[in-house]
Amino acid sequence: MTYEPSEAVTFRQRLLTDPGERREAEYKAALPLGTQDSFTLKLLRQIQGIANGGGGWLVIGFVRGSSGLLAPDPKHSDAVAATFEPTVLSKRANAAVFRGQHLRLTVFHEVHPTTGLRHPIISVLGFERSPFVCRSSQTASDNGELILEQGAVYIRRHGAETSKLCTPEDWDDVISRAVSNRRSETLGELSELLKQMMSPNEAPAPAIEKLEAWTSQAHEMAFR
Amino acid sequence: MPLLRPGYLEASQQLVGNGRRWGQTELLRAAERAQLRNTGWPMGVVLDGEGLRPTPTSTGIHFRMHRDRNEGGPGWEDFWNFRLDGSYYLARVFEEEFGPPSFQVSGGHPQRAIWFDTRIWRVCEAVMHSAALYRELGVPPDEPYLLSVNHGGLEQREFWTSEMRFVRRGKVSDEDCATWTRQVTQDLVVAEIKSLVAEISRGLFVLFQFTEIPDQTMFEIIEGFLRSRI
Question: For residue A173, what pLDDT is reported?
Answer without folding.
Answer: 87
